[in-house]
Amino acid sequence: MPPTDAGAATGHAPAAPALTTETAAPALATGTAAPAADPVSPDSVPVGPVSAGPPPAGPVPAGPVLDPVPAGPVEDTAEATAADSEDTLDLRLPEDFVAAFGQPPGTDASRADDADDLLDGIGDWGPTVTPVGAFRLLPVRIERDLPVVSRWMNDPAVAEFWQLAGPQSVTETHLRAQLDGDGRSVPCIGLLDGTPMSYWEIYRADLDPLARRYPARPHDTGVHLLIGSVTDRGRGLGSALLRAVADLVLDRRPACARVVAEPDLRNAPSVAAFLTAGFRFSAEIELPGKRAALMIRDRSLRHLL
Q1: What tens digit of pLDDT does each residue of 111-134 get?
Q2: How far is CA 6 from CA 9, 88, 114, 205, 290, in A?
Q3: Which of 30, 198, 232, 259 is most buried by a 10 A CB count?
Q4: In 10 A of CB 53, how many CB atoms?
């Protein structure tokens, strides 16, 4: 999956799915560093995808991008090394999932049902009121959304973390991998007051390679985010929308007790945005292509943080 740090790119999409600073800094990614001693304003970070302890000393590049990079295995074996390159959509669902669904996942007849079973029908979650306006997640449709998502991915601040710059076919391949999968990762457009302004990936972290890197629990749900327009970055939108989406996940998915993200540790603004949104820093974790901050929002703490 791409990382969660792009222009607010909060996590990597099915490669397992971004706020920037007030300048044309990198987008937010969900795999950011642990809270630093000198806090960075979340308003300067775009949203997009840790061993416990303080983040490394030294200056941090401005402007976060949520990095959507998929997590790899921890076993120190040849097989584990190969598994590090596994994408979320390449993992096989457990037999009990297949039995419960009644059809092998990935078939045309079962995709719509699988998506609802695994993430409880994101398209039906509806709008939510936030301090910055009415917000809604709308599952991506290639014919409608590819041009705008590809444009966002070619923003240098976003591309640094998501690594999807190039012709539209690059972004299309990334999106189709999720749309043609079994529903464990759903790419979405974020509409603020009816206007497309962000890209999100909502995914089952417990079915993602990320689950090999931390003590995952059933139905843990991951978030990757990127704020598309430079004019929407550095205004506090990232933290406000992250909190709203985390609340949507917890409200619409009763079985989910935690929302997780893994922003790049280098993306201090992104980590700050997650902290402001009610996430807590859990640990530093090594993921393919980045060292990430494991950020968690607990259902039990949602009214306290």
Answers
A1: 434 444 799 999 999 999 999 999
A2: 3, 19, 28, 19, 13
A3: 30
A4: 10
Structure tokens at 16: 């397992």
Nearest residue to 71 (alpha-carbon basis) of 297, 295, 289, 298: 289
245-278 pLDDT, tens digit each: 999 999 999 999 999 999 999 888 889 999 999 9
Enter the tokens of residue 10.
Answer: 């909060």
Write out the DSSP string of 96-154: HHHHHHSS-TTSHHHHHHHHHHHH--GGGS--EEETTEEEEEEE--HHHHHHHHHHHHT
Q: Is the pTM of this model over 0.70?
A: no
Token pair listed for 305 = 């943080």
Q: Which residue has the tokens 């390449």?
A: 90
Helices then strands, each counted (H, E), the chain? 8, 10
Beta strands in the chain (DSSP E): 4-5, 66-67, 128-130, 133-139, 185-192, 195-204, 221-227, 258-261, 280-287, 290-298
**CB distance 247 to 266 below 8 Å:** no
**Neighbouring residues of 72: CB distance < 8 A, sequence distance ≥ 6:** 80, 83, 84, 85, 86, 209, 212, 213, 287, 288
Q: For residues 160 and 201, what is the distance between their CA atoms, to the nearest angstrom?
A: 18
